[in-house]
Amino acid sequence: MGTYYVYASMANKALTKQIDLVNDTIKVALVTGSYVPNTDTRDEWNDASAFESNGSGYTAGGNVLSSKTLTYDATKNEWTWDAADTSWTNANLTFRYAVLYDDTATGKPLIAYVDFGTAQTVTNQNVTIRWEISEQDPDSGSFYFDSGILRVSL
After folding, report:
1. ∠ CA(88), CA(90), CA(94), 5° rounding?
2. Which of 26, 34, 55, 79 has CA atoms 20 to 30 A from the CA of 98?
3. In the chain, where does DSSP find H-type helix?
4. Can you tell me the distance from the alpha carbon of 150 to that of 10, in angstroms, rounded to the nearest whole number?
């Protein structure tokens, strides 16, 4: 499991309809530890693509997210963006980050990335990214997991 970060320009592009999180083709690509993420200055796929992982079982450009949804929970005043988990079968590669970007919009804007903390090397293994949000209950202090890539509370 990794830590999620959102690129600063994503909110502006989503709110001004340059990114459509449900209807556009959103991809997740694996990139190496040579990539230096910066949520303030990196904003397009070409900022990350030179560092994309390569190897068997992995397709350049990454996987298309399927079953994307954007839902609002009126009780919690929260929006949640989610998609089906994504995976690569029998992969042979090294990566540190999973970068989400909009493959439809002009410039292929970056949306978010997952930092796995260290380089992950796999040999003939399946790589699956489960889109889960970790939250801490303010009363009990315990953590729980819920589906979703991104959650915004109002």
Report:
1. 75
2. 79
3. 8-15
4. 12
Specify the DSSP class assigned to residue 84.
-
pLDDT digits (tens, 9 = 90+) for 103-124: 999 999 999 999 999 999 999 9
Residue 141: CB atoms within 10 Å: 7
Q: What is the pTM of this model?
A: 0.90
Structure tokens at 76: 């919690």
Residue tagged 């963006």 (tokens): 81
Beta strands in the chain (DSSP E): 3-6, 26-31, 63-64, 69-73, 78-82, 86-102, 110-129, 132-136, 143-147, 150-153
Tell me the two tokens of residue 35. 């990539």
Written as six digits, the tokens of 140 are: 């009990």
Left (φ > 0), alpha (ψ -120 to 50) or beta: where does 119 sit?
beta
